[in-house]
Amino acid sequence: MRSSQLHGPIRAQYVRFSENTAGVHLKPDAASSAPISAQDTRRETIWGIWAMIGAFGCYFCMYGFRRPFTAAAYSDTSVGSLGFKAVLVTSQVAGYMLSKFIGIKIIAELPAQRRARTLLWLVLWAEAALVLFALTPRPWNAAWLFLNGLSLGMVFGLVLGYLEGRRLTEALTAGLCASFILADGATKSIGTWLLNLGVAEDSMPCVAGILFLPPLAIFVAMLARVPPPSARDIAARAQRFTMNRAQRWDFLRRHAAGLIPLVLMYLAVTIVRSIRSDFAPEIWQSMGSAAAPSSFTQTELWVALGVLIANGGAVLISDNRRAFLVSLATCGLGLCLLPVALLGHSGGLFSTFDFMVLIGLGLYLPYVAVHTTVFERLLAITREHGNLGFLMYVADAVGYLGYVAVMFSYQVNPAHDDVLGLLRGAAWLTFGLSSICLILCGAYYARPPAPAANLG
Fold first, then answer.
1. Within a domain: 14
2. What burial class does residue 246 get, using C-beta atoms within 10 Å of its C-beta: 0-12 exposed, 13-18 middle, 19+ buried?
């Protein structure tokens, strides 16, 4: 990509980066034009499939330690005026949120060779917390879910590190994101299945985790064998680096005008997505349709398929700036589905199943676009000294902080049993706020390039 294709501060940063690293990194045009043999293409395809399977399986199995408990009602226990399940959800999400803030530093700085070992230790920590959850009497066992969330919150960034900075990154990351969409429903189904077998509510999360340990170890071993990005990958998407504190703050200062609306949109979408996910059984019941164990999986299959096609297709767009703007349009498409789902269900046009699929698509299209394309192509445009995990953890930290705040305020509300009303209200607010943020972000990055003479 030529610097003349970029605008204002983004172009200036690209030029400065290229000048300061002359002779160290491949120039995009030169490396991209180098011939590639059929054998090289076949090898990259095989490793791409290998990496996608490893990433999908690893993160799918991680959900086996995080989500099964949400299939239980915990209706016979309360903490003052608070429902015990809401306390459990808030406890785990608080740990998950704190993990995202810690991960801004750890994921940005962790060397590649330590990812696999760190992954395994974090998952073992999460399972140990679930064992203690089963052994500790209520309501004190809620504290163990905080530690469970604290360990699992960094898994995504570690897996993402194996996939970023490649010409196939969108396809690989779309597969990774499909895993948490499918796993969210599938692990609820497994939790419901274990409860139907007679496993106690407090023991069920631990038992589910044990089932997922062996396959998770296999998928982590697969990821550990994924080779680093090739020279052509680096030329097309920029080399990725660890970042120290000064480099992180410098990046955020220079990109604040574009990042702030993006992160605000992500915050709003994260809150509603989490409500839909954590309280899916209650939402179904509020609509008069008690969900069978398979219902959670079936809705998420349709959501995952739509999201995978829409966001994974960005890998076909070689121009980084065009792909970035298309990903913003994908976010807008998803946001437009929210009022369609809300109005359609209120008017009797959609069943509960249809509503859950549509609102899931509306939330996951922008949510996954940020994961797969928005930040990935921003780094490719600017060729910044940075990595995708850092940007994702900034957004995730803000998103989960917002969700924790919503959960606390919701629980002190006298009408806190109306989870369907909370979902609807939050979805309308998300549509309005996120649409404005998306317009601001698009306007900022769609500005025409500044004249070359202005670069000084």
1. no
2. exposed
